[in-house]
Amino acid sequence: MIQIAPSILSADFARLAAEVKRVEDAGADWLHIDVMDGHFVPNLTVGPALVQSLRKHVRIPFDVHLMIEAPERFVPEFVKAGADLVTIHWEATPHVHRVIQLIKSLGVRAGVALNPATSGEELAYLFDDLDVVLVMTVNPGFGGQKFIPAVVPKIRGLQRELARRSSSCLIEVDGGINSETAPIVAEAGAGILVAGAAVFAAEDPAQALHALRRAAEGAGPPI
Ligand SMILES: O=C(CO)[C@@H](O)[C@H](O)COP(=O)(O)O
Ligand SMILES: [Fe+2]
């Protein structure tokens, strides 16, 4: 079953609680919260205070994508604020394993995100500790960008390796996901699809979620 995680980056921040409740009611599985620090990526977004405020209005789990340098500095605050899954970038700290241990020790799920130019081969050392590998299908920093097809073989390679190890770790994809790209990533092995513009910019989010799910599930099981 494909899971969909709408990204708040394409929501109207002045009406955030109402917009998020709308996608929750429409059947979203996760809420994807993009955190940016202006260093790791050339953009700024939100911090733990916003996560804590939203937590009072939303029941679906929070998927917090940290696009920040040295994420270990802020992991405990995001968990305290209500994150259910915390994903850090492979490129953002020299001590990825230590940060994964920190996230797990706080009782939530842990993910590692890979920029388009990162192969992810070293991730094999972490698979036993990881709940999610997030494959960026755009360069991180902005919503509404175009999907990078060259990343698809990486999704397929990770899927094969995870299947070989009978791992329960899921592959999440993030960036430029819509009804055209959803079948491509689902066929390659993605189990969680992040979708910002495709859901929050749609007139009818329920219809947008349905279209994404149908497109992805029509792709058949991963090879
Ligand atoms: O992490 C990011 C961007 O850095 C994403 O979560 C985007 O916000 C997804 O938006 P769309 O590409 O689906 O509009
Ligand atoms: Fe994201």
Automatic annotation (TrEMBL):
Catalytic activity: D-ribulose 5-phosphate = D-xylulose 5-phosphate
Entry's family note: Belongs to the ribulose-phosphate 3-epimerase family.
Active-site residues annotated for this sequence: D34, D174
Alphabetic keyword roster: Carbohydrate metabolism, Cobalt, Isomerase, Manganese, Metal-binding, Zinc
Coiled-coil boundaries: none
HAMAP family noted in UniProt: RPE
InterPro entries the record matches: Aldolase_TIM (IPR013785), Ribul_P_3_epim (IPR026019), Ribul_P_3_epim-like (IPR000056), RibuloseP-bd_barrel (IPR011060)
Enzyme Commission no: 5.1.3.1
Top-level enzyme category: isomerase
Cofactor notes: Binds 1 divalent metal cation per subunit.
GO terms of biological process kind: pentose catabolic process; pentose-phosphate shunt
Domain of life of the organism encoding this protein: Bacteria
One family name in Pfam for this protein: Ribul_P_3_epim
Cofactor(s) it depends on: Mn(2+); a divalent metal cation; Fe(2+); Zn(2+)
GO cellular component, one term: cytoplasm
Pathway participation: Carbohydrate degradation
Classification via NCBIfam families: PRK05581.1-4, rpe
Residues holding a divalent metal cation: H32, D34, H65, D174
Protein's name in the database: Ribulose-phosphate 3-epimerase
